[in-house]
């Protein structure tokens, strides 16, 4: 019984590291993988390097995406697309109604 109490802090530290560091990283990696798999033609995206564009084609052989930018067509790896920035870009803009006081 004494051996278990000696190892209890180590076990507790491992559980804390798992639930606060490892598990969220695995969840985020799964979300990014699903995001990359759900991309389709016509989606507006932003790469991790900040390049804005629209998907025009896929290259399954290279696991890449061909995007159209103001400068032309560029090929990027699917993993270089930023999930957060692309989702923000594609969110519908909430229009706020301004109330104008008529005086």
Automatic annotation (TrEMBL):
GO terms for cellular component: plasma membrane. It is found in: Cell membrane. GO terms for biological process: protein transport. It is a single-pass membrane protein. This is Sec translocon accessory complex subunit YajC. It comes from the Bacteria. It holds the Pfam family YajC. Its main location: membrane. Belongs to the YajC family. Signal peptide: none annotated. PANTHER family: SEC TRANSLOCON ACCESSORY COMPLEX SUBUNIT YAJC (PTHR33909:SF1). The chain crosses the membrane at residues 6-22. Coiled coil: none annotated. Keywords: Cell membrane, Membrane, Protein transport, Translocation, Transmembrane, Transmembrane helix, Transport. The keyword RNA-binding does not apply.
């Amino acid at each position: 019984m004494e051996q278990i109490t000696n190892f209890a802090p180590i076990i507790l530290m491992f559980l804390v590291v798992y639930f606060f560091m490892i598990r969220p990283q695995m969840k985020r990696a799964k979300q990014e993988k699903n995001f990359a798999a759900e991309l389709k033609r016509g989606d507006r995206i932003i790469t991790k390097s900040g390049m804005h564009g629209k998907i025009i084609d896929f290259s399954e052989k290279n696991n890449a995406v061909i995007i159209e930018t103001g400068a032309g067509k560029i090929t990027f790896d699917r993993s270089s697309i930023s999930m957060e920035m692309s989702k923000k870009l594609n969110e519908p803009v909430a229009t706020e109604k301004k109330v104008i006081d008529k005086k």
